[in-house]
């Protein structure tokens, strides 16, 4: 057998192996194939996907078999005198019509599934999802809960430039600080939008992927059948940390969900009380700097860098006009309100954290303005005083 | 023009209006860009070899993916096809040269400047473009680095170059055909190219329009793509893909033409269904204008729009299928031999079919919403582009190289190049189907460990693939320097077409001083 | 192969190129028209509708939700006074929105509307809306802005909830942004 034949038959074997492995793959958690997921529609999507895979690979296998046969049977050594035919109307009609029929056959289930996927009516609750460079903001429109969810994998795990990265956890890059908690068995409508660039909210287990477009609202929905933790990612290139803004949904029974809502609301009240307390007292420079460094590393260093020197289009803070020349109030306003690529940290950080981080930026890396900003002043700025 | 005298040295290349010289320059330019774009791909695969960030900052990683895409699409594939068109079209239609030789010279010499501009942005403050080769607004407008303006200007220049090249092809094909060569007697490569040329002059202006709107959005206060001023970022995607989808066919139709020459030649049998090939090509080109939004199934289109674009897209599978079946029928009961060009052409048919079936899967809106922007898409379009456009080009180079240089290349090393490439190309791109289905999104420098195995396979494959192309370079240089001896005028036993039957090897500087008679 | 013939084809090809260039820019207004007809993206017709005493369909109730957000760098408070309201198709309703400029500068704001599902934008008629024009507020100034609308009774049966979203942008002048950015 010649080399060519070997490889050709190898190729066929390869394809059949792949088809085999699609079946062999564990349905719950596959690293080979789509997931059946945990909603009715994700199951239907999975079924349709498998159907297309089978039909399409069957078509491809037919073509490959024909090529393989020609390559073996009609090589010059076996068939020295070529035929001369150059068309056959019957054949050409057959291979125009048959693919059309196959496509029509495939289109039918796709249409009904699509209509269902797009039907967001009669939802039990609504969650507004806002994509922000590089985190997600969730707002429960029915229960006054609002929080920001960002990657919780520590930088030590992914920064491996010195080949000294910490050991990676199981959910590396797929874990967040604030999970989205949702009840099972309820039709949940998601209103999806963005603050800066286009993002895309994708949870494979729900078969939900919807672009978050700044200035516009898209909607989609899911009705989760089983409790569990479902992980997704941002699917549209959105800048530097596009690969670092995962989504984690924890689906729980209704009763547990209600408890979570209560807990969240209590936490919110408590946070407000603590913030008021923090704002009331006067902070020392040391306290502000220590707290500020922590906040800076967690929230600001991804763009402006730990050394304050910026990176690419992200401006440096070290020696910058904002952090040294402008007044502390203007500096704080910029952090609170955001501008262009700079997010609105006013809605993410407490007054104390804002005060601390502004103080830190004005005194770290040799900026040495000596300014301190008190949480009380932040509260005043937010109120327009 | 009637004598064989021409200047030598640098000025020969700088001022040449000869279709062969210009074709040669296009091909070498595209090969250089192919290597540069390939190096960037290796940079990407290096970072993706294992989880964690080992080499590049994520921002530079985005730059690599962006520049890799732009360079491969506009710098490698498109100029390679224009180069082949320059070399082959006059010879195949019995013309002495291209119709507009001076424009031909300009259209080439714009390219080095365009790509010089684009590549220089790598060294600029703020870095090179980092928003993907699709440069979606507002990431590329409000949030783009300062070098975006150089990118915009570069795109304008390469657009002008492509349009000039395309116009030249159209005028040549319409006006310079030998007597007796009616449209339905034109070789398939000429047919596919003239259809490509029409696509080019229709969509490159749209691309130019899109980047111009970007430019005015960035600097002149317009808000085409900014909701704040009443614009819409989704409109950018509509305009981009109105260009982008025909662009996809610009990058594959000439390869269809090439396969339609090589498969009959090595099957020693005429092309099956010539006229249906022509109609299929034309209908693919037509359909390419009415399916663009299948790249945007997740932007929140109304359901009627999604249904329309799904069905229209699926229809493309029919003419594409016709082409594949015709090639198989061409081989049927032929007398096949497997020289390097045939091997690449066969690989083209087989692997393009794989890219085609994943294309049908992607056309189906409900499932596409899962596939969209994952590595499954990356696998799909690389199957169409690498074994499609690039194997097509490589097959063409092997097939016509003896005609161009007058020398036979080394069949042994050509085959080594082939086997190296085909194993590597599958090792690189096949695993991407799986990582995509399992949930790995595109354009990320880092990933969860569950995708590690497939990414390692891809990375190893990519380095093999890169190495394989060094063999190609060696084969080319060896052949130009004399190769394995002189080629016959007909070169291949089953070769057809004026360039093989009416011209010596190497082909003379001016192809046909006197028009040949075509029966 | 005559030169004249070459020129003929050349000019035709250049003509196609020129036409397509025009078309590229014509896609902008075409797209807007297309959006208004099909409701792609919930782009809302930014013009006043007239309330012509359409018959109110009291058998049907549609929930209208209001979402507001503020663009970066916009020092205003901006919200609707209610989160949602139930309406009968055909019934004219008024909803108040509140805005306050808490900065020390006079600032002009522009609210950009969007509707989800996009299809609904076709049946949503506003007779009065603050989003039709810009608002300028002095430092500390606050304003209550009305938005009057009715839902066309032709609204497709399967739609029960319609979300109206407003994003408030700073429209003072592009120049002032760059100063603060440095």
Architecture per CATH nomenclature, i.e. the level-2 architecture of the largest domain in chain C: Sandwich
| Biggest interface found | A-B, 106 and 106 residues
Distance between the termini of chain C: 62 Å
Low-pLDDT stretches of chain C are 175-182
Assigned CATH class of the largest domain in chain B: Mainly Alpha
Q: Which geometry of chain C do the CA atoms define?
A: flat
Query: What percent strand of chain B?
Result: under 5%
- Write the element-wise H/E pattern of chain C from the N-terminal end onward: HEEEEEEEEEH
Structural class of chain B: mainly alpha
Question: What ranges of chain B have pLDDT less than 50 throughout 5 or more consecutive residues?
Answer: none
The overall average pLDDT of chain B, rounded, is: 93
Number of DSSP strand runs of chain B: 0
Helix percentage range of chain C: 10-25%
Domain Cytochrome oxidase subunit I profile (chain B): 13-519
Membrane topology (chain B): Multi-pass membrane protein
Catalytic activity (chain B): 4 Fe(II)-[cytochrome c] + O2 + 8 H(+)(in) = 4 Fe(III)-[cytochrome c] + 2 H2O + 4 H(+)(out)
Keywords (chain B): Cell membrane, Copper, Electron transport, Heme, Iron, Membrane, Metal-binding, Respiratory chain, Translocase, Transmembrane, Transmembrane helix, Transport
What does this protein look like?
- The complex is a heterotrimer of chains A (385), B (519) and C (182).
- Chain A is α+β, with helices and mostly antiparallel strands.
- Chain A has helices at residues 3-24, 40-73, 89-117, 155-158, 254-280, 285-304, 321-325, 328-337, 351-363, 375-382, and strands spanning 125-132, 135-140, 145-149, 180-183, 187-194, 199-203, 208-212, 218-223, 228-234, 247-252.
- In chain A, helix 2 packs antiparallel against helix 3, helix 8 (328-337) crosses helix 10 and helix 9 packs across helix 10 (375-382).
- Mean pLDDT of chain A is 87; it is low at 23-28.
- Chain B is mainly α and 519 residues long.
- Chain B is built from 16 helices and no strands.
- The longest helix of chain B has 36 residues, at 58-93.
- Chain B starts with 9 loop residues before the first helix and ends in an 18-residue tail after the last helix.
- The mean pLDDT of chain B is 93.
- Chain C folds into 2 domains: 1-38; 44-172, Sandwich (Ctag/Cox11 (Pfam 04442)).
- In chain C, the strands form 2 sheets. Chain C has a 5-stranded mixed beta sheet with strand order 3-1-9-5-7, with no helix packed on it.
- Residues 175-182 of chain C have low confidence and may be disordered.
- The chains are: A alpha+beta (385), B mainly alpha (519), C alpha+beta (182).
- The A-C interface holds A 119-123, 126, 128, 130, 141, 189, 191, 193, 195-196, 213-219, 315, 320-322, 330, 333-334, 337-340, 342-344, 382-384 and C 41-43, 65, 67, 69-75, 83-84, 100-104, 112, 114-117, 139-140, 158-161, 163, 165, 167, 177, 180-182.
